[in-house]
Structure formats: C-alpha cells, structure tokens
Amino acid sequence: MFKQLLRKDNMDSKFFTTKEIAPHTMAIIGLGNELCYLVEGKTKALLIDSLLGVGNLRAFCRELTDLPITLVNTHGHVDHTGGNFNFDECYIHPNDISLMYEKETLREEYVKNGIKKIGEKYCTSGK
C-alpha cells in the first residue's frame, strides 16, 4: 500500500505533486502539468510514463511505495519518456522507440528555455 503519510494528504515536492485518484492509484503531476500514474499491486508497482525528466521521479516514487517499480511508456513523446533515464529499464512499443530519440533536440530546448515555451511548441506541432 502507498506509504502511510500519503493517506492523510497528497504528497508534494519541488518537482512533483500527487493526487490519489483511486485505491492504490496515484496521479503524479510534473512541473509542466504533465501526468503519470503509479499503480500499486500486491507485489509490484506499475509506473505509467515518466514525465519530462525534471527532478528524480524514481526517488520520488520511492517515497510513495516500497514495492519494486516497473516503468511502461504509453508512447514516445518527451512528456511521457523524459524521465526514463532515472530507471534501469522501461517498456514501450517497438514502433515508438525511434520517437523517443527523435525528441532529444526538444529535450535540449526544454532545458534551455523552460517548460512553458517548449510545452507550447510541442503541443502545437500537431503530433
């Protein structure tokens, strides 16, 4: 189960905020308002997406659960795969692997220019 401190309230950090959206299911919101989800099972936890990569999502998830975490990306966009480097492995559809790497330039721009500017550029790309 999610660590007891979360039962009384949601957990916030410098980079992430949380909201329990269902039993054993936590939404994690990144600085750019991107979302990922941590779902606890009986023996493992599933992290769905890894946000933009700002802050250490893995360490933050360790504050939420003691269970081993498996990371799955829904697709290759930077706001879903940016934090993959914090994890030892992730699962993604093979067709999206190249998309993850195509967005490296976007990640670099994001670091230089900030979330809002890149978020707007990314959102208006039509993809």
Key traits:
127 residues; alpha+beta; Metallo-beta-lactamase, Chain A; five-stranded mixed β-sheet; 6 helices; 5 strands; 32% helix; globular; disordered C terminus
Question: Could you explain the architecture of this structure?
Answer:
The protein is α+β, with helices and mostly antiparallel strands and 127 residues long. It has one domain (5-123): Metallo-beta-lactamase, Chain A (4-Layer Sandwich). It has helices spanning 5-8, 57-64, 78-81, 97-102, 104-113, 115-123, and strands spanning 17-22, 25-29, 35-40, 45-48, 69-72. Strands 1-2-3-4-5 form a 5-stranded mixed β-sheet, with no helix packed on it.
Outline of this structure?
With about 130 residues, this protein is of the alpha+beta class. It has helices at about 5-10, 55-65, 80, 95-100, 105-115, 115-125, and strands at about 15-20, 25-30, 35-40, 45-50, 70. The radius of gyration is 15 Å and the shape is globular.
| Secondary-structure element order, N to C | HEEEEHEHHHH
Global morphology: globular
How many distinct beta strands?
A: 5
Judged by helices, strands and strand pairing, the structural class is alpha+beta
* Number of structural domains: 1
Instruction: Give the second-level CATH assignment, the architecture.
Output: 4-Layer Sandwich
Note the gap between the termini.
Answer: 37 Å
SSE topology:
Layout: H1 5-8, E1 17-22, E2 25-29, E3 35-40, E4 45-48, H2 57-64, E5 69-72, H3 78-81, H4 97-102, H5 104-113, H6 115-123
